[in-house]
Design goal:
Helices cover 42% and strands 14% of the residues. The protein is α/β, with parallel strands linked by helices. The structure holds iron/sulfur cluster (2 copies).
């Protein structure tokens, strides 16, 4: 595992960060053991959010007695001043701490949302105020549109960005990461497995590890998973392996979906999940979580081909800022059922 200087913050952070989003789904003892084991093994970056059910409380109850051992990052997805302030205060209580190292304005994907958060009466003002009072050390932003994030950081109001970077979503490398490097910001990549879709796991974790990022947030819920993630980062990535992983990402990212979630489907088809898993599914097959997704959504996915209102023109496609062929990809996904049963 590597430790690097985290932008201008002065902290040295571990390359593997503990993503605590899924902890509420497992028994408390298991979650607590995973968090404590991670700290024992040198992971010093813990990532959560006010919106992740009781994840903040689990962290507070499990490791707040070891507070000096980790850099604590949480998020608010409120956009206005009053609700963001209230939520940040609640996070401090739930995390059982008197300081949050990094408060991120969470899941900002449209210009409208960004403007709301940055307005006179926006969430950013609440974060700034809490920073001035010493409750927050640094302010960051998270989102799914690397192209927009690259523009939004230019005024240097943020010290960190949390973005997707995985074998099926290599898009942050185009503009966002170089811009963050220029501005000396903390670079945090999330979802190395794209929410449980990408395999092989080892390659999936080593791909962001091969790139210019400080921390890779991996969602973990057990000691076993922490061990597996640490093992994948035991050795540094050499040039030959990096080139191989980049070529693979080029292929698996051909779908071009950024998961901006601008699209919707009247049948309820989860278009971004299908787009992003498309090449992985046909190249390697999916992890059990991905298989479960396809099994649960079988009827919906198969119904796309006959959905009459989309006959002449797919309803979803005009919503996509990247003009992607979503109907074709969803229809191709039906091949999954021919090969999986
Ligand atoms: S083309 Fe398929 S995925 Fe797109 S809106 Fe219609 S039914 Fe949904
Ligand atoms: S298909 Fe297009 S609109 Fe939908 S999430 Fe992907 S990039 Fe966004």
């Amino acid at each position: 595992m590597r430790y690097t200087l985290f932008g201008k913050t002065g902290y040295r952070v571990s390359s593997l960060g503990f993503g605590a989003m899924n902890l509420p789904g497992v028994p408390f003892e298991q979650a607590s053991a995973a968090l404590n084991y991670a700290l024992d093994e040198g992971i010093n970056y813990i990532d959560t959010a006010a919106a992740y059910r009781n994840s903040e409380e689990i962290i507070g109850d499990s490791i707040s007695h070891r507070r000096s051992e980790y850099f604590l990052a949480t998020k608010t997805n409120k956009r206005d001043y009053a609700s963001a302030k209230e939520e940040i205060e609640r996070s401090l209580t739930r995390l059982k701490t008197d300081r949050i190292d990094l408060l991120q304005i969470h899941y900002v994907n449209t210009v409208q949302e960004f403007k709301a958060a940055m307005s006179e009466d926006g969430a950013y003002k609440a974060a700034l105020e809490m920073k001035e009072k010493g409750y927050i050390r640094h302010i960051g932003i998270t989102g799914h549109r690397p192209d927009l994030l690259a523009k939004w950081i230019r005024k240097e109001q943020f010290e960190q960005v949390l973005f997707h970077l995985n074998l099926a979503q290599p898009f942050a490398l185009d503009e966002l990461i170089p811009e963050m490097t220029r501005l000396n910001m903390g670079k945090v990549a999330m979802k190395p497995l794209s929410g449980g879709f990408i395999q092989p796991v080892d390659k999936a974790i080593r791909y962001p590890y091969s790139q210019d990022v400080n921390v890779i947030i991996s969602g973990m819920v057990s000691v076993e998973e922490v061990r597996e993630n640490i093992a994948a980062m035991r050795l540094e990535v050499g040039d030959a392996e990096r080139s191989e992983l980049e070529a693979l990402a080029h292929k698996l990212g051909e779908h071009n979906c950024r998961r901006c979630n601008y699209c919707s489907c009247p049948v309820g088809i989860a278009i971004p999940d299908i787009m992003i898993s498309s090449q992985v599914r046909s190249t390697f097959g999916l992890l059990p979580k991905g298989d479960g997704f396809y099994q649960r959504n079988k009827e919906k996915i198969l119904s796309c081909a006959d959905h009459e209102p989309c006959g002449e023109k797919p309803i979803c496609e005009p919503m996509c800022p990247y003009e992607l062929p979503m109907r074709r990809v969803v229809m191709e996904a039906s091949s999954y059922y021919a090969t999986s049963s």
